[in-house]
């Protein structure tokens, strides 16, 4: 298998996973609809930065160590689950407490403001999900040609995943950016927060259950 063949084969696998709606899609939609396209792109950038970090960790062996150590995996999984449940519960709490005319003023419970907040949410949520790292550990060795530096190849594969994810989520941001202004001020923003918060809570709970099995 040559490098171009490996990249193409990985792109097919990663592309199919990218198209499946999940937590990343929910976060990008939330940032775009409740705020603006620029906030949606900030969340997208954070998600893809997290993907690159996981790719580098997998290629460098850190994620392989995580996959091999059941204790380390459970600790990170429970920490990630707690973080997601806390974040989701905070969104739900704020959406129910917010006045009906608050609209897009419902904030995330993060210490910094502006677009950095959305970038931090995308990055931290991605990094706190150990299943991303385990996916890379399982996938990357299958697409490293003989004689090729594993670290370099791992970064190239993560970059391919980032390009695909950026292309798809950019379409989501553009579409949500068109709908967003029509929803703000109508009370729909609070329901977007509730939906995203619910997804985070359910995903976190599922992570916690999987860590205890």
Secondary structure layout:
Elements (H helix, E strand, L loop, with lengths): L2 H17 L3 H12 L2 H24 L1 H7 L1 H28 L17 H13 L2 H10 L10 H34 L4 H25 L1
Helix pairs in contact: 1-8, 2-3, 2-6, 2-8, 2-9, 3-6, 3-7, 3-8, 4-7, 5-9
Largest sheet: none
- Overall mean pLDDT stands at 75
| Distance between the ends | 37 Å
Strand content: under 5%
Number of domains: 1
- Annotation field: number of helices: 9
Number of strands: 0
Structural class: mainly alpha
Quaternary structure classification: single chain
How many whole angstroms does the radius of gyration measure?
18 Å
Which spans of ≥5 residues are poorly predicted at pLDDT below 50? 100-112
Give me the strand/helix succession: HHHHHHHHH
Principal-axes shape call: globular
The amount of helix comes to over 70%
Textual characterization of the structure:
- This protein is mostly helical.
- The chain has one domain (3-15, 22-212).
- It contains nine helices and no strands.
- The protein has helices at 3-19, 23-34, 37-60, 62-68, 70-97, 115-127, 130-139, 150-183, 188-212.
- α1 (3-19) runs parallel beside α8.
- It starts with a helix and ends with a helix.
- The model is unreliable at 100-112 (pLDDT under 50).
């Amino acid at each position: 298998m040559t490098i171009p063949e490996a990249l193409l084969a990985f792109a097919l696998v990663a592309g199919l996973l990218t198209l499946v709606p999940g937590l990343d899609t929910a976060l990008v939609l939330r940032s775009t609809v409740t705020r603006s396209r620029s906030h949606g792109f900030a969340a997208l950038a954070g998600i893809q930065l997290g993907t690159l970090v996981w790719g580098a960790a997998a290629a460098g062996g850190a994620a392989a160590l995580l996959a091999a150590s059941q204790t380390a995996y459970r600790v990170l999984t429970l920490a990630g689950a707690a973080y997601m449940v806390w974040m989701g519960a905070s969104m739900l709490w704020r959406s129910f407490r917010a006045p009906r005319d608050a609209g897009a003023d419902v904030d995330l419970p993060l210490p910094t403001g502006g677009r950095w907040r959305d970038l931090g949410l995308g990055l931290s949520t991605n990094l706190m999900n150990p299943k991303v790292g385990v996916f890379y550990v399982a996938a990357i060795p299958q697409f490293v040609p003989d004689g090729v530096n594993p670290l370099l190849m791992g970064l190239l594969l993560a970059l391919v995943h980032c390009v695909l994810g950026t292309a798809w989520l950019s379409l989501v941001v553009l579409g949500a950016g068109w709908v967003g202004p029509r929803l703000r001020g109508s009370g729909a923003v609070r329901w977007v927060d509730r939906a995203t918060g619910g997804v985070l809570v359910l995903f976190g709970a599922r992570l916690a259950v999987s860590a205890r099995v």
